[in-house]
Amino acid sequence: MKAIVIPQYGGPEVLTVQQMPSPVTEAGEVLVRVQAVGVNFADIISAAGGYPGTPAPPLIAGREFCGEVDSTKARVMGYAQWGAFAELVSGRPNYLWPVPAHWTPQEGAAFPVNYFTAYLAYWKAGLLNRPSGTPRARVLIHATAGGVGTAAVQIGKLLGIETYGTSSSAEKLARVHELGLDHGINYRERDYEEAIREMTSGEGVDAVLEMLGGEHTLKSVKCLREFGSVIVYGAATGKPGTLDPRALYAKGASVHGLWLSVLSGNKKVMDAAWAHLSRWIAADQLRPVVGHVFPMEQASDAFQLLLNRQNFGKVVLMIP
């Protein structure tokens, strides 16, 4: 079978399309014929050798896919730790979900990582079931025009949350406003910490969805109101988050980690998340935002686009 392979650690340029052995399914697994795959920042980190638990190269890249179960032709979207960027992938039932009939393969490939991550971030922040009469919650979403960002905006709107989002251009922010973003902050023109302080009259937000790392972990804490929380799910700057715990004292604030690679193995958590997400999907209230589609032979270009922060929504590769 054809697959996108990481032959050795490096940047996007190391990716190659090669013939690889077809996967062998283990007990309980099914063989899926892949049609489209979603590119995530974790895939870039894996190619560079920086993602924990990734096998040594050579290995097949990718963790998110959409296709058909080979034996039944049922359309599914799925999640894997690696090996998804290929014509065939072995899928575990707990990591497979039905694709809505009106969705394209590209949309199916854009769902699992983005929407489970965004939903679970709201869950970790305690914002799913707020008591009636509680003031409207505020959430700051970093990289709001990205895959997880656009998912978080849509889910935030459904939860009745007031959303603030950072991005690098007015054009991107305008497009995210169409998805339901309430307040956009162009971080190239304005410091988002100062902007949040001004826009909330000094009160701050209830939660920050933080995937930048470096100085931004501490800056995000400073954006919180009393008892707020920062949900950390990445480090796109390539730098570990810096945080002096004393910054949490005055507000009773907290910082939580969110790692889908681990949480995806918790069936109770994932089933509860899917029950909620699937209801929204059935009501046609959620639909993945696919911004860029490449053939598998241009995987390096797709990775570079994401690395350069030029994407809007999801970057998808088509598997012929």
Account of the protein in words:
With 320 residues, the chain is of the alpha/beta class. It has ten helices and 16 strands. Helix 3 packs across helix 4 and helix 3 crosses helix 9.
**How would a crystallographer describe the biggest sheet?**
7 strands, mixed
Number of strands: 16
Helix content percent band: 25-40%
Run of helices and strands:
EEEHEEEEEHHEHEHEHEHEEHHEHE
Core attributes:
single chain; 320 residues; alpha/beta; seven-stranded mixed β-sheet; six-stranded parallel β-sheet; 16 strands; 29% helix; globular
Topology, please?
Layout (H helix, E strand, L loop, with lengths): L1 E5 L9 E4 L10 E10 L1 H7 L11 E2 L3 E6 L5 E5 L8 E4 L4 E3 L6 H5 L2 H13 L13 E4 L5 H13 L2 E6 L2 H10 L3 E4 L5 H8 L5 E6 L5 H7 L1 E9 L21 E4 L2 H4 L3 H16 L7 E6 L3 H9 L6 E5 L2
Parallel strand pairs: 9-10, 9-12, 10-11, 12-13, 13-14, 15-16
Antiparallel strand pairs: 1-2, 1-4, 3-5, 3-7, 3-16, 5-6, 6-8
Helix pairs in contact: 3-4, 3-9
Entry summary:
Helices cover 29% and strands 26% of the residues. It is an alpha/beta fold and 320 residues long.
